[in-house]
Amino acid sequence: MTNHWIDLKNADVILIMGSNAAENHPISFKWVTEAQKNGATLINVDPRFTRTSSKADIYASLRSGTDIAFLGGMIKYILDNKLYHEEYMLNYTNASFIVGKGFGFKDGLFTGYDEKKRGYDQSQWAFEMDDKGVPKKDPTLKNPRCVLNLLKKHYERYTTKLVSSVTGTPEADLLKVYKAYGATGKPDKAATIMYAMGWTQHTVGVQNIRSMCMIQLLLGNMGVAGGGVNALRGESNVQGSTDHGLLFHILPGYLPTPSASIPSLAVYNEKNTPKSNDPRSANWWQNRPKYVVSLLKSYFGDKATAENEFGYGWLPKLDDGKAYSWLDIFDTMYNGKIRGFFSWGQNPACSGANSNKTRQAMAKLDWMVNVNLFDNETGSFWRGPGMNPAEIKTEVFMLPACVSVEKEGSISNSGRWMQWRYEGPKPMGNSRPDGDIILELGLRLKELYAGGGAFPDAILNLKWDYLTNHKYDPHKVAKEINGYWLVDKKIGDVTYKAGSLVAPGFALLQADGSTSCGNWVYCGSYTDKGNMSARRGQEDAPNNIGLYPTFAWAWPVNRRIIYNRASCDPKGQPYNPNRWVVKWDAEGKKWVGDVPDGPWPPPQNPDGSPNEAGRYAFIMTKEGFGQIYGPGLKDGPFPEHYEPLECPIEKNLVNGQRMSPVAPVYGTDADAHMTCDPRFPYVGTTYRVSEHWQSGLMTRPQPWLLELQPQMFVEMSEELAAMRGIKNGERVLVASARGEVKCTAIVTKRFKPFKIGGAVIHEVGIPWHFGWRWPESGEEESANLLTPSTGDPNTRIPESKAFMVNVTKL
Amino acid sequence: MAKAFFIDTTLCTACRACQVACKQWHDLPAEETKNLGTHQNPPDLSFNTYKLVRMNEKVIDGQLRWLFFPEQCRHCIEAPCLEALGDPGAIYQDPDTGAILYTRQTRQADADAIIESCPYHIPRKGPDGSVSKCDMCNDRVHNGLLPACVQACPTGAMNFGERDAMLEMANKRLEVVKAKYPQALLLDPDTVSVIYLVAFPPENYHEFAIASREPSGVTRHMALRKMVRPFAAALSHLG
Description:
The structure holds 2 protein chains of 2 kinds.
Chain A: E1 13-17, H1 21-24, H2 28-37, E2 41-45, E3 58-60, H3 67-80, H4 86-92, E4 105-106, E5 109-110, E6 113-114, E7 119-120, H5 147-155, H6 160-167, H7 171-182, E8 191-195, H8 197-200, H9 205-218, E9 229-231, H10 238-243, E10 250-251, E11 255-256, H11 265-272, H12 288-300, H13 326-334, E12 340-344, H14 348-351, H15 355-362, E13 367-372, E14 395-400, E15 409-412, E16 417-421, H16 434-450, H17 457-460, E17 467-468, E18 471-472, H18 474-482, E19 484-485, E20 489-491, E21 494-496, E22 515-516, E23 526-527, E24 530-531, E25 553-554, E26 582-585, E27 590-593, E28 682-687, H19 703-708, E29 713-717, H20 718-724, E30 731-735, E31 740-748, E32 754-756, E33 759-761, E34 763-767, E35 803-809
Chain B: E1 3-8, H1 17-26, E2 52-60, E3 63-71, H2 80-85, E4 91-93, E5 100-102, H3 111-117, E6 124-125, E7 131-132, H4 138-142, H5 148-152, E8 158-162, H6 163-180, E9 185-187, E10 194-198, H7 218-227, H8 232-236
Parallel strand pairs in B: 1-10
Antiparallel strand pairs in B: 1-8, 2-3, 4-5, 6-7, 9-10
C-alpha cells in the first residue's frame, strides 16, 4: 500500500477491483464502511457478484483476464473528457516528457521485440535527452511524441464498445464506473483502489496494476489522503516477507539479486545505481551502494572488508536470463534437477498453480523438509491421490513450527506498519519458532562446512550471531535489521559511537563499511529510544486524518502516506486543505504533518519563483516524476490487453497478439493448455472465501469454520446450469487440460454469462482452500489441480485467475 | 436499564464472525454440514446454533441484491415464550438486561408450546427435550463485556447498549439509509430488544423477519395479543 488501512476512510471514491475485500479482508470494511458513511461511492468490479458487490453503490462485471481493457477504456474516458488534474500531471508525472524515436507500437507489439527470446530490447523505449542528459519535456503538451499524446494514441482504440466486447461488461456499466471514478480528478477529491490477487495472478499482472497507477497519476490521486494504489496483502506478514527479500530477484530492501555476469561489487553498483543529470531530481536510488554495503556488513560482519568487496563474492548469484520463481523451481524439480527441498510455512501441493505437476515434481526429490504447524498435503504428498508410496523415493522430514501467537517478533502489514507482537502461550509440544529452527540450521551448517565442502566461505563467514542464552533472540535480529554504527564516525557536528544503533534513519547509512543494516527500509525501526514497532500511541497527527504516527512504525522512516509531497501544489500548500497530509511551513522552513518524502523545500517559493533547493516529488524514480510512461518493464511502457494463456476466443479483439508475447510458457508433459477447445468451453477462475485461509491448513481442521464452508464448490450462472442440466447443490466435475476436481454446484444469479465479441461466454469460479488431507472424506481437492503453469513475465506469479474448464454432472 | 441490540443489515458483509464468535463463547459444537448450493450454513438455527447469518439473493426493482440477515432471538420485551410457558424456573427475563433466558428446566416443559409461541421461529429443541436459543451473552453483559457477536463484528453492523441509546442510533441511521433505500425500516422496534434495520421489505430477508401479522395457532394468537399492546407509555418513561 502507498497509503494504509485507516486511510481508506478518507476516500471519496473507493474502487475494489481484483480483490474481494468484504470477504477476504473483512476488517478493511470497517474503513470502507466509514468512508461510505462519510458519503463515499463504493465501486466494485468483479466477474461475480460477491459479498463486496452487495455493499457497492456501483457494481460492474467483467470476464476474468480483461482488466487492462476495462482500465484502458477508463484512461481513454479520462483523456477524452479532460478529467485529469492538469497541474498535478504537469508537475508530478512524466506526461510532458518526450519519448525517443525508438519507441513504437504495432499489431500488439512494442518496438524491440525478439520472437526467439520472447523478450524486448527495452533500450528502444528511452526518453529523448537534452544536451545535459536530462529528458526533454514539452510543458505545452503539443509535441506528438510527448507521453500524454502517445498515451492518447495508444488508448484511442479502447472505445467503450470495443472494451465491452472484450470484457463483457455492459457499456452503460462501464460508463457508470468511468464517470464516478473520473470525477476525482479535482484537486479536493480523492479515489483509492483496493486490489489483490485478482489483479496480480495473470500473465499481465504487473500491467494490470500499472494501468491503475497511470489512472491515479492522471487524476492526481497519488500521495493524497484517501488515494494511492493499495495492495491488500494475502497474509498478515506478506509485506514484511517481501521487504526482507522473500522473492528470488531481490535481496532485503529491494536490492537486485546479483547475477553471475556481474563479477564485482563495483560493477554491481555501476549497473544498479541510477544516475540523473537533473540536479532537482532526488533520485534516491543513487544511494543504493550504501544500502548494499551495509547489508553485506550485516551478513558477514568483520569478515566483510573493503579489500574483499565486503563479501560480495559470497552472495549467491543468478544465472543470467534465468528465473528462479515458484513456477521455475517446480519446473526444474519436475525435470529431476533438484534433489532436496525445504517447504517452509507453505503447502505447495495445494497452493501452487498446476498442483498435479507440483506433486509429481516432489516425487523426484531425494528429500524434503516440511516445516509447518501440522502435516499437510505437501508433507504427505507420497500417500496422496494417484500416488504409489512404494514407488516414491523422497524422504520427508517434518519439523513442527509453533503458531504465530506462541512467539515474539514483528509483522509488517499491507500498510507497511511494522508491529511488534509478544509471545502468548508457550509453544506446544516440541514445536519451535521458525527463527529458532533456521538459526540452528545455520549453526549446524557452519559446523558441517568447517570440515570442508563446496565453497564453504559463504556459510562460514556469515555473522549469524542472534543467540541469547543459547536461544534465538528476535530483538537481536530486529536491531540487526535496523543497523549499527561499526566505528566511531563524525558527520557534521555529531559523532556516532561504534556499537550504537543507526538513528533516525537510512540517510546516515554509509558505503565505506562504517555501518551495518539488515534492511535499509527498516532503518529507524529499533533505535536507542527503543523498539519503535512496539509503540501503541493513540494520538493522531495534527492533520487528523488517521495517521496515528506513534502507533507501531511504518517504513520508510515512519512515513504513513508515501509520495506525500505530491499532495501539495508546487508551493507546498495542500490541494485539499480539509484532508491535508503535509504542508510547507515557509517561515519555519520545514514540512509539517506526515513525515515528508525528503526534507527539501517544495519546487516553488511562495511567490511562485522556482526554488533551486527544491526536489521533484517522486523521489524513487530516476527522473523524479510519476511514470505514466513506464519504460522499465518487460512487457512494454504502456499496458496493452492480451488474452490469458487459456482463453475462450481465437483472436484478441484489441490487437494482433493473442496472449502476452513475453509471458513464460513451460513445456513439460504436465503443462498442457487449451484455448478455444470445445472440451474446455468455460472460463474458470479461483478465489478465496471469508471462512478459510490460504490452502486451508489452519482452517479446514477447525470444525466451526468447516461448518460454514464444508465443501469444495463451483459457482455458476443459472443459464449455464440450465444448459448443462445441473441442479443447485448437486456434485459436479470441473476439469481443465491439467486436472479435475469434484465440486458442489452453487447455481446463482451472482454469475451471469458474458457477451464477448458477439458470442455468449460462461464463467465459473472455485475456491482454492481445499485439499485431500482434510476434511476426512478426502473428496475435497485443490482448485490448483486445474490452474496453468504460466505467469507474469516481470514477477512470474502464476496465472491462477483465468483459465479454461469444463463442468459436467457427476 | 434494559439493553438492546441494533443490527444494521445494510452494513453486514456476512463475514459470519458473529456466528463463529457465538459458538466459541457458548462452546457449542459444530454441526456436520454439507454445501447445499448456498453459502448459508448451517441451513437453519438449531439447538447448537443460536446465531445464523441468513443469505438471500433477490432481484428487487430489476437489481440484484444479496441480502444478509444475522438472525438471533429478539429478546421480546414481553416475550410470548415466557408468557406461554408461565414457568419462571424454565424461562425468565433478567430484570437488569431484559434478556429472555432458558434454563435446563425447559427439559420438563412443553417444548413444542415454547417453539410454537415464538413469532420469529427461534427456539429449538435438543435431543434431551430441552430448548435453547441466544442468551444475549448475559454472563458477558453482567461483566461489562459486549455480547460475543457484537464484539466480533468488523463493520459496525452489530451494536449493543442501553435500549434508548440503541433506539436513537437506529432511528438516526434509518434516516440516513432512507436517502438511498426509501423502503428502509426498523423491524418491530417497539416490541423487541434486537432491532433490525433493513433496506427492503422484510420478507426478502427471511420468512420470520418480523412477527407474523396473521398468526395461525391459538398459542401464537394469544402471544400476539399481548405483544401488540401499546408501548408508547412504556417507552415514554424510558426517556
